[in-house]
Amino acid sequence: MNNAFVYRAHYRTVWLSDIHLGNTDCKAEYLLDFLNHSTIDTLYLVGDIIDMWAMSKQFRWPESHNQVLHKLMSLSKEGSRVIFLPGNHDAPLQKYDGITFGEIEIAREMIHTTADGKKLLVLHGDQFDQAVCFGPLQSWIGDKAYDLLLFINRWYNRARAMLKFPYWSLAGYLKSHIKGANKAITRYKYACINRAINMGVDGVVCGHIHHPEVADISGKKYYNDGDWIENCSALTELPCGEIKLIYWTQTSHANNLFNLRMSKARGQKKAA
Ligand SMILES: [Mn+2]
């Protein structure tokens, strides 16, 4: 890539979560493309960055995942402030709360102040699993069903790519159309908002449920930055303090990347 001609958007802040490096369904190429088109003052890694659960089941670490990890580490050396808030899939790192590794600060929760002076609580969101009643059995079933759904999603999008359609999240569509899923998402959102109310802050930034969203609830802001498994989304703050969700698969060069990735995959199949 010729960096001299790459247009880079400047963000005061970027929140990324649920990247799931080490998981087959992580869209590492898209994330790398987003990071290569961005200049970031402060980057929050809002949990589930490395999928230690998936890695314990089956070790998978392609070159693209390595490139993402390398890029995230190099950002802190290039002058970005990087804060990592471990989630449930990278829970072993939670014990380093308050420690700085190299240039990366580790914390379980953080308060962010926007350019226009708003205070936002930043956290992964697994803190609310009890309140939302995702019991251990329910999360195990959910995990299995979700794995199957992602498997279907993968093949479905291969077919779409062959027909030159852009990437589309089947899992995301089903989640927003199933009654039980909607209920759980609502409960999760209210658990987040209640926490913001109790802490006296203006809102909350979280991830965890792979459901990007911006909402106003009871006078507080709810921001969910989504994920890089299905949605390829990032929450961004512009220098003026405006906060926006970005879906990287919907940008034109991301679509070119999708077709390139799929034609490469087809090429590899043919060669094999
Ligand atoms: Mn999570």
Structure, explained:
GO terms for molecular function: metal ion binding; UDP-2,3-diacylglucosamine hydrolase activity. One of its GO terms (cellular component) is membrane. This is Metallophosphoesterase. Keywords: Cell inner membrane, Cell membrane, Manganese, Membrane, Metal-binding. It is a single chain. The protein starts with 8 loop residues before the first strand and ends with a helix. It has helices at 28-36, 52-57, 63-77, 129-132, 136-162, 170-177, 179-199, 252-271, and strands spanning 9-16, 38-45, 81-84, 100-101, 104-106, 109-113, 119-123, 203-206, 213-217, 220-224, 233-237, 243-247. The strands form 2 sheets. A 7-stranded mixed beta sheet has the order 4-5-3-2-1-11-12. A 5-stranded mixed beta sheet has the order 6-7-8-10-9, with helices on one face. With 272 residues, it is an alpha/beta fold. Strand 9 and strand 10 (220-224) form a beta hairpin. It has 8 helices and 12 strands. The longest helix has 27 residues, at 136-162. It has one domain (8-271): 4-Layer Sandwich (Purple Acid Phosphatase, chain A, domain 2), CATH 3.60.21.10. The structure holds manganese (II) ion (MN). Residues 47-48, 87-89, 124, 126, 208 line the site of manganese (II) ion (MN). Residues 47-48, 87-89, 124, 126, 208 line the site of manganese (II) ion.
